[in-house]
Specification:
Elements (H helix, E strand, L loop, with lengths): L15 H10 L9 E4 L4 E3 L13 E4 L2 H6 L3 E2 L19 H11 L8 H8 L3 H12 L3 H19 L4 H7 L5 H12 L31 E6 L6 H11 L5 E4 L2 E8 L2 E9 L5 E7 L6 H11 L6 H4 L10 H6 L11 H10 L5 H15 L5 H4 L11 H4 L11 H15 L8 H9 L6 H11 L11 H9 L6 H7 L7 H10 L5
Parallel strand pairs: 2-4
Antiparallel strand pairs: 1-2, 1-3, 5-9, 6-7, 7-8, 8-9
Length: 505
């Protein structure tokens, strides 16, 4: 799909002429929003590429790197399209497409079919193919194939994995198939791209810092779409860090985790130039690096196109000043939906500090202990308990009332169901709505952080109401809910901006 009058959110006027002007000026605000394909060379680039600007008649514009690859163009070796911030070509345009892209990037088509993917999304496979092509310019299969190539090169340049490990992780099946595919796509052998990862992660040499990288750690660099307000994210997670599970230090977020039965330690170093996050992975779970990378991108909302999202906020009397103060604000996500669901229930009608204490007791009492050689000195001791591990457990001793403990138990039973991982966000919300003790605030908070719903808005949240009143807006939930209609479909970001107004309160 070439860009004519692109359907990118907040950029309805973007067309080929505007793209060419952005290309000539190397405007970084357009990085990742479109890609320039040069017919005479067969190569496509990011708009910030320092190469000589091609003639207007020789270029085509595509909304995604995947679309350019699907049309026969090769990625530029100089500007590295695979390292561009996440393309908004499918973001915020159609909810099913957004979810489909996420699932494909997590490997949904490696072991499943389009029909299986469509079932998970609750749509027909023909409908999925149509809307996917309409909004991304490629079919789901073409997207998956192109992502495999882009992902592989990113791992070559931005990680310290071996070529054999990359071939296996990226889904090529064999080293020979990996080498052949990369040569065909890039014109060079994969080893030609390896020049040593440069990260902001601290090294172990001459230090006993437990958050520094060890010689056998896996390191992965993840870039963020600009502008990126890492300081606010760190402050948010610092206030809510669960004792024993998470630690937040100066420009560092770390946590223990378990994936596919394997435990690990993740240490995220936020770069001082706000360009992104360097992720140190330690332990056997590091083999799930692609899933971990996808989770980290969601956790820190690295791919959000904030300028496009906030375009409709800038003239709003309530939100405008807040956007001007923090232009790169993100919506903090979650590591795991079950974990966030329990956090939301524990946070009902109590302070952030009280909810953190309750969650810490839950982790200490029921979480799996981590080996000291993995986490020693970090303050991290356990992984979050699983639904199966919490079933039938007595929950009141951590400090819950009988009613709250029953609500928590009902949520645990829901997530312990064998098919829960296959449930769509809408299905989960519907199931949680039926649980006694879960109201609109919990559902919206879970939707906002647990499901990544960009339009979730907990209008009854006391902090949001207070911030609204401070800014001259309504301090009643119904009135604020009415005003929030003007902020659709990005009300989750509006909520985050309102919460940011309470800094120092």
């Amino acid at each position: 799909m070439l860009i004519n009058s692109a359907k990118l959110p907040g950029m309805e006027q973007l067309n080929n002429d505007i793209c060419y002007q952005a290309l000539k000026t190397r405007d970084r605000r357009f990085d990742g929003r479109f890609y320039t394909a040069v017919r005479t060379t067969g190569i496509f680039c990011r708009p910030i590429c320092p190469a000589v600007t091609p003639k207007r008649d020789n270029v085509e514009f595509y909304p995604s790197a995947e679309a350019a690859i699907a049309h026969g163009f090769r990625p530029c070796l100089r500007c590295r399209p695979e390292a561009a911030p996440g393309s908004p070509a499918s973001a915020g345009v159609h909810a099913s497409v957004v979810r489909a892209v996420r699932l494909i990037d997590q490997g949904a088509l490696e072991n499943g079919s389009i029909a299986d993917l469509a079932d998970r999304l609750g749509v027909g496979d023909r409908h999925l193919r149509r809307i996917f092509k309409e909004h991304t310019g490629v079919t789901p299969q073409e997207h998956a194939k192109a992502r495999r190539l882009l992902r592989a090169r990113q791992l070559i340049v931005d990680s310290n994995l071996t070529m054999t490990e990359i071939a296996d992780i990226a889904g090529f099946g064999s080293l020979r198939r990996f080498n052949d595919a990369m040569k065909q796509a890039y014109g060079q052998a994969p080893t030609a791209f390896r020049r040593g990862i440069k990260t902001n992660a601290r090294k172990t040499a001459g230090t006993d810092d437990p958050f520094a990288a060890r010689s056998d750690d896996l390191i992965l660099r993840l870039r963020a779409r600009q502008p990126f307000d890492a300081d606010y994210l760190l402050a948010f997670f610092r206030a809510r860090a669960i004792p024993g599970l998470e630690t937040v230090r100066d420009r560092i977020y770390a946590r223990g985790f378990k994936i596919d039965g394997r435990v690990g330690l993740m240490i995220c170093h936020f770069s001082t130039d706000q360009s992104g996050v360097d992720v140190i992975l330690r332990g056997p779970a590091r083999e799930a690096v692609l899933e971990i990378g996808a989770r980290v991108r969601r956790l820190f909302d690295l791919d959000a196109d904030v300028p496009s999202i906030t375009m409709q906020f800038t003239q709003d009397a309530l939100l405008g000043p807040l956007v001007a103060k923090r232009p790169g604000l993100r919506v903090p996500g979650c590591w795991d939906r079950f974990e966030l669901a329990l956090r939301a229930v524990l946070g009902q009608q109590v302070s952030v500090a009280a909810a953190r204490t309750l969650a810490g007791r839950l982790v200490a009492r029921f979480g799996e202990a981590l080996p000291d050689d993995l986490v020693g000195g970090t303050g991290i001791t356990h992984v979050f308990p699983t639904p199966q591990g919490l079933m039938k457990q007595e929950l009141m001793p951590i400090g819950l009332t009988t009613r709250r403990a029953q609500t928590l138990a009902d949520v645990i039973d829901l997530f312990a169901q064998p098919d829960c991982d296959q449930k769509s966000g809408d299905d989960l919300i519907a199931a949680m709505t039926a649980i006694k003790g879960i109201g609109p605030w919990t559902l919206n908070y879970f939707g906002l952080r647990g499901l990544g719903d960009p339009d979730a808005f907990p209008a009854a949240d006391l902090g949001i109401l207070k911030a609204s009143g401070m800014g001259g807006g309504p301090d009643k939930a119904n009135a604020l809910e009415s005003i929030s209609e003007n902020w659709r479909p990005w009300r989750a970001y509006a909520a985050q901006y309102l919460w940011s107004a309470l800094e120092g309160e």
